[in-house]
Amino acid sequence: MNISDVIVHIKESLGSEARLSLENAIREIEGVVSARFNPGKEHLLVVAYDTGKANAAALLGKTRAAGYTAQLIGM
Known about the structure:
Blueprint: E1 3-10, H1 16-27, E2 32-38, E3 41-50, H2 56-65, E4 70-73
Antiparallel strand pairs: 1-3, 1-4, 2-3
């Protein structure tokens, strides 16, 4: 297993319920180990995933499919 981290920047302001919903949706992707927003950085979703089972494009795609304007940081 090879774990990598990626940060997804989300343009919209998300309330606590929207953040929780998006975290849960990202966790449903096979290979995702964790997905979380840090307090004070509500525009940045940090995702750890197994690169053998998931990829950053899938994480970004799921975020955009949820209706958010998003981009990857640090790629």
